[in-house]
Amino acid sequence: MNFKIRAATEEDCKEIWRMLTELAIYLKVTDKVTITHEELKRDGFSENPFFECLVAEVPEEHKSEEGYTVVGYALYFYTYSTCSGRTIYLQDLFVMQEFRGKGIGKGLLSKVAELGQKKKCEQLLLCGYAWNTPTQQFYAAKGAEDVDSEGSQYMCFKRQSLDNLANEAPKD
Asked: Catalytic residue positions?
């Protein structure tokens, strides 16, 4: 299938949000998605963006049943590992159901890897759900390694805990 991968623009935020909610439905986490497309625009397209994003677009003649031409996205950001150095972190990779198996997901993943390579990143890091076997198999087939066995555990301070912790910071 003919498709193009390009950097997302502010105008894509509604489409990214639409697909983000489709991903949340698939992952059964709709209750956890609280951001809006306006927040995506603010956080991804401001002077100092928190993330970057690629979108996959098909020609008009291949649009989805609902009429969409933007059919996938990869949302990522750069971070740093004190063990490995420069890291590109893939937060989301999503392709609409009817466009899966056509190379779009591989194209998005490969493009994120290329961007990381250009910035001299040592690794591409991502996190997935243990029950999501198709996704695990997709990444493993491309060379990803399961690093859970290395003893890592992700922890998160959510809003209230983050606020509580911030309030305990030493005063200047």
From this structure: 139
